[in-house]
Structure formats: structure tokens, C-alpha cells
Input
Amino acid sequence: MNQQQQAGDVRMIPIDQIEVINPRERNNRVFNEIVGNISAIGLKKPIKVTPRATADGVEKYLLVCGEGRLKAFRSLGETTIPAMVVNVSDEDAFIMSLAENIARRQCRPLELLAGIRQLQEQGYTSKVIAEKTGLTQSYIQGILMLLHRGEERLVIAVEKGRIPLNAALSIVGAGDDDTAIQAALQEAYESGKLRGKQLIDARRIIERRKTLGRSAAHNMSGKLTDVTTSSLVRTYQHEVERQKSMVRKAEFAQQRLMFVVGALRQMFADENFVNLLRAEGLATLPKYLAERVWSGGSVA
Output
């Protein structure tokens, strides 16, 4: 990041001159709390913006941090807002905004992960990302490793606190082999990494990962994933395999049924066996089997 960032001064800035460069969705309850607090006691901390000149000479500002406070002011009918003005580049403003959101940890898991990945894509190492966000370097390294493996389902579970990061890494390290995955779970349990509800959650996540894939239902921005040719091919291949599995199971069931029908025909061909069943009141079969064992559907 550019180190020539200048210390800012606080000014009253027209709200309609501020552009949000890194917008994010916000929980309504949290937003209402922000509005209520500002309405009751005012703005405790100014937002941060960086100025930009426009072709028509109108002064504009890019929002660096404070989107919730800005929206709250606008909803209260205010036209200006206290803002600390700093001079940074567009890239630095965007990075500062990402780091601010991640450091506060008030964003949704998907947004947090998207922010970490965006910081890395901007060229920052896991150590620098950790310094900027207040997260540990080992956590950043683990999350990035899971993201690179496409393990969105696991990484979201980690951020939500459903399973610990080291357990998720153990699961990934086991690959796709069911036996190895179960061994990893056993090791995690015995070492204390997974206990109680977390162990149950881990098993559920592994099952969904196996049946639904590593990617979550949403992409890292929290919006529905765009349909692409490759995603359609993967979906088609998954459905083909599912159908083949159903056919194999049906064929196996049919073979067993044919064996049962054949055995019953031989047994009911024995008059002594039939007389014994009659004596015990057992000389009937379910309609489905009876129609296949006897042409008339009942014992002679």
C-alpha cells in the first residue's frame, strides 16, 4: 500500500457527494441499532473518505470506511456527515475498506472470506493480511489454503464456529477417501479438536461436501453463483452419476427379487411344505409376490 497517506482532518461533507466503493449487505437489526444510537447520542466516530476531482469541477469523495454510519445519517434525513478526509489512491482506499470490514468482524462469513481473498489477490501476503485485519497469521494461512482447494463449504463452517480450523485442515488433508476422512475425524476427536456438537456438525458437513460438492450454494460475494458452461457440465455429470447409481441399486434389487421368487416357486412346488403352511395358516403371500409365484395369484 502507498505509504504516502496523509493524516486526515475532519470536515462536514455533503452525503450526496460520497460514493461507496466497497458496498456490502447489512443485517437489518444491526443497522437499526446504528440508526438508534446515532439518533440518541449522535455520531461518536466520523466516517473516513478520500477526495476525488471530477471533470465538471464538483468535489466528490470515495468512502473508505463507515458505510453503516453513512446510511444511518441518510435514513435520518441528514444532508451532511462528519468525515475524516485522507489522501489515498483508489486502490489504497479499496484495500483500507476491505481491511476495516474484516478487522471489525461484523460482516457475514461470506463477506469476510471474500475480503481475505481479495486482499491476497491484491498481492498481500498472509502475514500482511493478518497485520491489517487483526487476525492471526496461522488463521489466514489456513483459510487461504482451504479457499485455494475450493473448500468453501468447510471454510464457511470454520468462520461460523461450527468446526475448528485445524479440524477442517485435517479433513482436507484426508482427500476424498472415506476411510481416511473417518480416520481424520477419529484423530480430531481423540486429540480434542472435535468434541460434542462440533463432531456432529463435522459429520454433517462432510456428508454435504460429499453429496453436494465442496462449493457452497453461494459464491464468495454472497450472491447466487453465475451459471457457466463448466458448472452446467459438472451438474450434468453429477446427475448422470446419481442416475447410474440408482440404476445399479435397482438392478441389484431386481436380482434379489428374482432369486426370492424362484426359491418360493420351488418351495411351494413341494406339497408337504404347502400342507404345513396351510396347517399354520401361512399359505398366503403378499399380492406382489403371489402374482409372480403363482399364475393365478394364490396357492392351488
